[in-house]
Amino acid sequence: MRNLLVYVGAIIFTLYFLIPLYILVLIAFSPAKFTLESLYPPLYFKGFTLSNLVYAFTQYNFIHPFLKSFFVASLVGIIAILLGIPAGYGLSKLPGKLAYAFIVVLLITNMVPGLVVAIPISVEFIKLHLFDSIPGLALVQELVTLPLAVFILQGTFSAVPKEVEYQARIDGASTLSYLSNVLIPVALPGIVAAFLISWMFSWDEFTYAVLLSPIHPTLPVEIYFNIERGNELAAVAFSLVFTIPVIVLTLILQKYLKGEYLAGGVKY
Amino acid sequence: MIELKELVKRYGQKLVLNGISEKIETGEFFVILGPSGAGKSTMLKVIAGIEELDSGSIVVDGKDITRLPPEKRNLAMVFQNYALYPNMTVFDNIAFPLKMKGMGKDKIKERVERVAKLLGIQELLKSNVTRISGGQQQRVAIARAIVREPSFYLLDEPLSNLDARTRFKARGELKRIQKELGGTFVYVTHDQKEAMSLADRIAVLHEGKFEQVGVPMELYEYPKTKWVGEFIGDFPMNFVSGEWLGVQGVEIGFRPEWVKLDRSDFKGTVNSMESVGESTYLFLDVKDVKVIVKGSGHFDVGDEVTFSIEKYRRFKDGFLIDQK
User: Fold this and answer.
1) pLDDT attached to residue A265
2) What is the pLDDT of residue A257?
3) Predicted confidence (pLDDT) per residue in A236-252, tens digit
């Protein structure tokens, strides 16, 4: 009986999240007369067509927003790792309480609404010629992802026994060769998790993107523009492609997001 | 030769090392023995360069290494948890110090294989270090220490994570390896039995100082202070008033092994007992004093036992006054 309730709950929960995806697929692959153009659209496939997608990808600019999103997200992931590793390593060597205080302060920046920060930043970015650029947007999104990456990496690094570092030093390793030969390979799962989470955050980030990169928009912003202009079919087609990397990465991340890696589950 | 000169180390208000001086000879198996929290591990960390000294200096073979970072001290260390690199195979673990020295690949391979053979772990070289047993991990840690031929070795309770049987075997092996290499070993332990069986000399660390340094038998026979007498030995030394034997103004210390039973000098009641092999150690109440004596055969709680003290040392104000 209890098992049954769990299943019912799980099914309701799953449907709640999957129905929007289903409708997306429905609109993308049905002729428009059954969906957008009908007054009471049915919730099942009445016909199948690829012409919506062909039309969207040939008539509208898809590849530029896609590449912009891809480059920004990858840059966000890379910066998060490059700055997060030294920061996380440093924090992992502080006493636990002090490191925790630092991380709380870092995460507090996330609590300021994006809109509030984005406007002054865009003013400065225009002066610095970073407005509407890939590095500019990546740097701003780093405001949110970097603290998160530092938090994950600090946890992973803290799980490596300090004797291992002592041993490496005694065996003749400098700090840099300890990092590259021992700590980074040992903490790889945590590093991968930090990269993927940063990448995914940037991939569907909207507030900063729409304010700081409106001329050459990223994919979510382009989808939004298309909806605004009434090009729902293009928006639906782009959304479909937009979702695929998220699904793939979530599947990969599942392995790393089992808690043990985030809580510093280095297998030792 | 390692010369420790007036080592002082504080953690906040707490004085952990309070002016330790000692010379450790080349090729010596030197054991630092002390209860938990006496500062043994701190001492090794200071010698290794992981912790900085507040004052004092360390001189190895005439060279002052006090201010050198760990990677420049040319020493090897084995930690209690072995501190193996979990991302590497056994081979790569052992090869790591050589790789850091920038040694050639062929030479590394030859050296690693030679050391692996010495420790009987040739078959494991390709395994991952997280997939081998505790005893094997301990050998890998030792192999990694000896492969680089350092000027000396530091060992921090390397046997305490092993089960009793493996530990016994590993103890003998460690001693054999040390003699074979002729290496200088500085070995830390809280287990006095381990210290007695391994050491050329033992230093007893108590409250930040070496309370006594000597060969194992000397510590057992002539403990410099009452504290050492109680700490060394399977059972602590007994201390009673000198008047028991008609000596004024001193305390008498005698070991449970230094009595003969069934002599009428003293009489006591058995309070509890503990068997060790064929012997039984009896905890007696004698004239309101607790005394431990060694006997053999069967006893019961409440039995009356008579004994005489065959051998004893005299102590005044907690210090030994007899000379060897």
Assistant:
1) 40
2) 62
3) 999 999 998 888 888 88
A265 to chain B, any CB pair closer than 8 A? The answer is no
A266 touches chain B (CB under 8 A): yes
Q: What is the CATH number of the domain that holds B280?
A: 2.40.50.140
Helices A188-203 and A63-92 sit at what angle, rounded to 10 degrees? 140
| Domain count of the fold of chain B | 2
Question: Nearest CA to CA, how far is B139 from chain A (Å)?
Answer: 15
Predicted pLDDT at A258:
60
CA distance B61 to chain A (A): 18
Structural domain harbouring B158 = 2-224
Q: B98 CA to chain A: closest CA distance, Å?
A: 8
| B264 and B311 fall within a common domain | yes
Give the pTM.
0.82
> Which residue of A lies nearest to B50 if distances are taken between CA atoms?
A166
Question: Is the domain of B202 the same as that of B249?
Answer: no
DSSP string computed for B26-94: TT-EEEEE--TTSSHHHHHHHHHTSS--SEEEEEETTEE-TTS-GGGS-EEEE-TTTT--TTSBHHHHH
What pLDDT is attached to residue A113? 86
Q: Can you tell me the ipTM of this complex?
A: 0.85
How many angstroms separate the CA atoms of A145 and A206, rounded?
14
Q: What are the tens digits of pLDDT across the range B68-121?
A: 999 899 999 999 989 999 999 999 999 999 999 999 999 999 999 999 998 889
* CATH entry, A53-256, from 3.60.20.30, 3.40.50.300, 1.10.3720.10, 3.40.140.10: 1.10.3720.10
B120-139: average pLDDT: 91
Quick check: helix, strand or coil at residue B151?
coil
In this structure, the answer to whether residues B134 and B239 fall within a common structural domain is no
pLDDT tens sequence across A114-133 = 888 899 999 999 999 999 99
pLDDT in tens, A140-193: 999 999 999 999 999 889 988 899 999 999 999 999 999 999 999 988 888 988
* Same domain flag for B293 and B162: no
Strands in A28-133 per DSSP E: none
Are B277 and B196 found together in one domain?
A: no
Q: Are B200 and B290 found together in one domain?
A: no
Q: Hey, how many other C-beta atoms are within 10 angstroms of the C-beta on B61?
A: 13
> Nearest residue on chain A to B47, judged by CA atoms?
A170
Q: Which two tokens stand for residue B150?
A: 């350092």
Contact B76 A170 (CB under 8 A): yes
Chain B contact for A180 (CB, 8 A cutoff): no
**Cβ contacts of B70 on chain A, cutoff 8 Å:** 166, 169-170
**Together in a domain, B143 and B31:** yes
CB B208 within 8 A of CB B34: no
Rounded to the nearest 10 degrees, what angle do helices A134-158 and A114-128 cross at?
A: 120
Residue B130 — very low, low, confident or very high, per pLDDT cuts 50/70/90? confident
Q: In terms of domains, do B96 and B209 share one?
A: yes
Q: Is residue B229 part of a domain?
A: no
Q: Do A186 and B85 touch (CB under 8 A)?
A: yes
A172 touches chain B (CB under 8 A): yes
Residues of B in contact with A182 (CB under 8 A): 85, 87
Q: Which pLDDT belongs to residue A259?
A: 52
Q: What is the DSSP letter of B15?
A: E
Domain segments of chain A: what residues? 1-49, 53-256
Query: Which of A174, A177, A182 shows the shortest C-beta gap to B85?
Result: A182
For B71, the closest of A161, A172, A267 (CB atoms) is A172
